[in-house]
Structure formats: C-alpha cells, structure tokens
C-alpha cells in the first residue's frame, strides 16, 4: 500500500513535469517549428509572456502568422543566447537607468548578433521584435539601423537602404538650401 | 546573407518603427539629412508625435546664448561645439533684431528666453498692465498675452515676468504655441543682462 502510494506520487510528478515543459514551440508563417526556452521567452517578450500566463501556448506549435521562419529563427536564437549571457537582474537595472541614458548600448554579443544579418533579415527582425513586444531586441536592431544612417548624406542613405528618391527637383533644391548646414558642415 | 544586389528597403517598415530608429540618431544633422532622403522620412521626422517623443528623450540642443540687455544679441555656439553648424544656420535664418515686434523693437524690453521663445514687455501708459508678447525669432511670429487676471496688484508694471518651464512634456511643435504658462513674480528671477542659454526646438526641419 505504502509502496503503491509512492509510485502514484512519482507518476503524478512526472505528468506535471511533462505538462510544465521548460520550452515552448513556436510556428512561423511558413509552418516551421522552433523551440525556445520558456523562461527566456517569457522574460524577453511581453507577448509570449502573456500567452504563457494565459495558457494559450500550443504544444504542437503556437502559430505566429506574422513572422517568417528566418526572422523567427533569429528571435529564438536571440532568446537562447540571451538566456545564457545575461542574468535577469542586469535587464532590470538597464530599464531603471532610462533617465540618464535613453537607450542602453548593445552588448558586444548583441552587436555581433545583428552585424551578421542581411538588411532583409534585419528589417524583418525589427518587425518581429515589435510584434512580440521584445523591447530589448527592438532596441538592439533599431540601434543597428540608426548606426547605418549616422553621418551619411541623403544620397548615401538612399543607397544603403534602397530608398527611392521621391522628391521633385524643386523640392530637393529647396531642401538643400534650407539644410545646407547639415549637408556641408558636419 | 543575401547578396547585396537587391537590398531591402527601409521604407517597408511602419512609421512607428521608423520613429524608433530615428530617435536613436543623436545628431540633429543626421535627422536633417534623413528627412532629405525621401518624403516618407520627412513626414515621420516632421510629425508632431515624433518631435514630442524626441524632446521627451533628449532636451533641445543648446545653440547659443541670448544676451537679454538692449539690444538683444544672439551668440551662436562656435566650433568645435557639436551644435555649431545648426547654431550658425539659426543665426542666419532667425531675426534676432526682433524687427517684427508690434511697433518695432525699440519699445520692448526682453524679459526671459526659453525653448526658442523670447518674452518681451512694454510699458503701457494707458493701462495698469504692461504689454507682454512671446515671440519666436526663427519664424518671426509673436503672440500677445492678455493680462493675468486676479493679481489685483497696482504695481504690476514693475514686476518681472518670466516664462515658466513647460511641464507637460509637450515641448515645441509644428504650430506656434507658447510652451508654458506665464506667471508673475514680485522677485526678479534673473539678473538682467546675464546671458541665457538658448536652445531652439525648431531646428529639426519640420517645414523643409
């Protein structure tokens, strides 16, 4: 009797452990599945945290129809790397220092993480981070894009970001005159 | 890595994310050049919402000193100060002789300056209250203030009016607004003639 009871308890614990997996499965718009640490997902993404708390996580893959597989792979990669590199206390203190420095500088590994991305992947990742409410990842990706703009002329900005110049000649001339200080005197 | 032949366009991002990116440009010149890249960027950068977010995160750059003794004199920041190019542009574009004041600048005495606005007063011989105007030297505009009610003070003309700092995070904007309430104080709040720091909100090109 005693033994049976012990077995039953062990069985119970195993079941709980299964239901309470420490990863969540995410499904990209093109149907690919990715596993991410539940703890990291909940800590880094307000949207995923809400889904986990609200029990709307699907064990067979939670549909994220707005996010393509490449972007989702990067999101998951970022979460896993983050889980290994920064304790949550560091994250908390970074948000407290808001007043002195509006944006926290990316860590070295975060720089490397976004540096290797193509423009396409980077822009997709900005959108994914925004969609998932990943403040820190949004910070890191936006920082990277702004770095690519700094010190560049309008022509160079158009070239780097593949932007069509939709100003008329007259408008452009007007802008050149008004903003001459920004173009020639930096 | 995709081949660099067909890079993605930044224009695909929604306005909200473009704002997040532009907010991280800390030089005003970068914002100016960005707004010259395409009309979408200009629209986002010149929008009131973006400018409010920007001012919330960063105070307006200091572009020089405004000496308030008569005649008022603007001394732009000089190289190597990072605001020097924008300060020179402000000095050229704005009217620091204040020739646009009603009746000409000679009747007016500068009382205070803040956030790109300057407060002037003029002795009025017909009324208890001095005439007060707040003006914007960059756009050569002014707003005349109505007398402050409820002071009941006969010596009002001798008080030193000043601009109260805006507290609602509103900052400047595309429209011309007085960024603060006008209050009166019986104690001189500033030593007149002392140069005051003058940061101009409107040097981000919102009307290029």
From TrEMBL, chain A:
GO terms for biological process: jasmonic acid mediated signaling pathway; protein ubiquitination; ubiquitin-dependent protein catabolic process. Pfam families: Skp1, Skp1_POZ. Residues 23-84 form the SKP1 component POZ domain. Residues 136-182 form the SKP1 component dimerisation domain. SUPFAM superfamilies: POZ domain, Skp1 dimerisation domain-like. Keywords: Ubl conjugation pathway. Residues 1-21 are annotated as: Disordered. InterPro entries: SKP1, SKP1-like, SKP1-like_dim_sf, SKP1/BTB/POZ_sf, Skp1_comp_dimer, Skp1_comp_POZ. The keyword Nuclease does not apply. Pathway: Protein modification; protein ubiquitination. The keyword Disulfide bond does not apply. Part of a SCF (SKP1-cullin-F-box) protein ligase complex. Involved in ubiquitination and subsequent proteasomal degradation of target proteins. Together with CUL1, RBX1 and a F-box protein, it forms a SCF E3 ubiquitin ligase complex. The functional specificity of this complex depends on the type of F-box protein. In the SCF complex, it serves as an adapter that links the F-box protein to CUL1. Belongs to the SKP1 family. PANTHER family: SKP1. This is SKP1-like protein.
TrEMBL record, chain B:
It holds the Pfam family F-box-like. Residues 7-54 form the F-box domain. InterPro entries: F-box-like_dom_sf, F-box_dom. PANTHER family: F-BOX DOMAIN CONTAINING PROTEIN, EXPRESSED (PTHR31264:SF7), OS07G0554500 PROTEIN-RELATED (PTHR31264). This is F-box domain-containing protein. Gene3D superfamilies: 1.20.1280.50.
């Amino acid at each position: 009797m005693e033994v049976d009871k012990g077995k039953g308890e062990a069985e119970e614990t195993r079941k709980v452990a299964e239901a309470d997996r420490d990863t969540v499965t995410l499904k990209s718009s093109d149907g690919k599945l990715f596993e991410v640490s539940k703890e990291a997902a909940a800590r880094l993404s307000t949207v995923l945290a809400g889904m986990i708390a609200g029990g709307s996580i699907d064990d067979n893959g939670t549909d994220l129809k707005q996010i393509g597989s490449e972007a989702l792979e990067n999101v998951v990669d970022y979460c896993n790397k983050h889980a290994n590199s920064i304790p949550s206390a560091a994250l908390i203190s970074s948000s407290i220092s808001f007043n002195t420095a509006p944006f926290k500088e990316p860590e070295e590994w975060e720089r490397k993480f976004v540096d290797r991305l193509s423009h396409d992947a980077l822009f997709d990742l900005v959108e994914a981070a925004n969609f998932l409410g990943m403040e820190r990842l949004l910070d890191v990706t936006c920082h990277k894009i702004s770095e690519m703009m700094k010190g560049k002329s309008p022509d160079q900005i158009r070239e780097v970001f593949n932007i069509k110049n939709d100003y008329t000649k007259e408008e452009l001339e007007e802008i050149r005159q008004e903003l001459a200080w920004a173009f020639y005197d930096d | 890595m995709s081949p660099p032949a067909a890079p993605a366009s930044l224009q695909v991002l929604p306005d909200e994310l473009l704002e997040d990116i532009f907010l991280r440009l800390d030089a005003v010149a970068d914002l100016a050049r960005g707004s010259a890249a395409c009309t979408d960027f200009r629209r986002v950068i010149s929008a009131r919402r973006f400018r409010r977010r920007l001012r919330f995160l960063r105070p307006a750059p200091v572009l020089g000193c405004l000496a308030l003794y008569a005649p008022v004199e603007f001394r732009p920041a000089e190289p190597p100060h990072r605001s020097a190019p924008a300060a020179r542009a402000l000095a050229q574009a704005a009217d620091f002789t204040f020739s646009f004041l009603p009746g000409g600048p000679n009747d007016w005495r500068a009382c205070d300056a803040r956030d790109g606005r300057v407060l002037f007063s003029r002795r009025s011989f017909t009324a208890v209250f001095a005439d007060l105007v707040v003006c914007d030297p960059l756009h050569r505009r002014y707003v005349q203030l109505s007398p402050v009610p409820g002071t009941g003070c006969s010596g009002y003309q001798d008080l030193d009016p000043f601009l109260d700092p805006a507290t609602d995070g509103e900052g400047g904007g595309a429209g011309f607004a007085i960024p603060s309430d006008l209050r009166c104080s019986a104690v001189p709040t500033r030593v007149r003639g002392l140069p005051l720091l003058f940061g101009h909100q409107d040097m981000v090109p919102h009307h290029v």
